Amino acid sequence: MQLLVLQHLKYNMKKIFLFLIVFIVSCSAPKTCCSQETNTDIKSYLQNFDVKKTLKKHLKFSTVYGAVNGGTSVSDVKTFSVTSGQLQEGIISTPYDYSLTVGIRKIARFGYENRANTFYDGTESNYTDAATVGKVQGFEYLFEVDYARQQGVDYIDHHHFIRYSSDDNCDGPLCVDHFAAKVEYLKDGFADVEYFELSERYRWKKSADLSFSIGAAHRLSEPYGYNPLEEWMLNNGNLHYTYLAIQEGYNIDVANNEYRDPNGAIVANSAEVWKEVVIPQVLSDYSERKRNELKKQIQHSLILGFDYYRYTKKTWLHAWGNLLPWHYNDGGEFSYHKYNEDEQWYDYSAGLIYGIKVDKHLGYFVEGKYNKYWNREWYDFKFGINYIIF
Question: With pLDDT > 70 as the criterion, what percentage of the chain qualifies?
Answer without folding.
Answer: 81
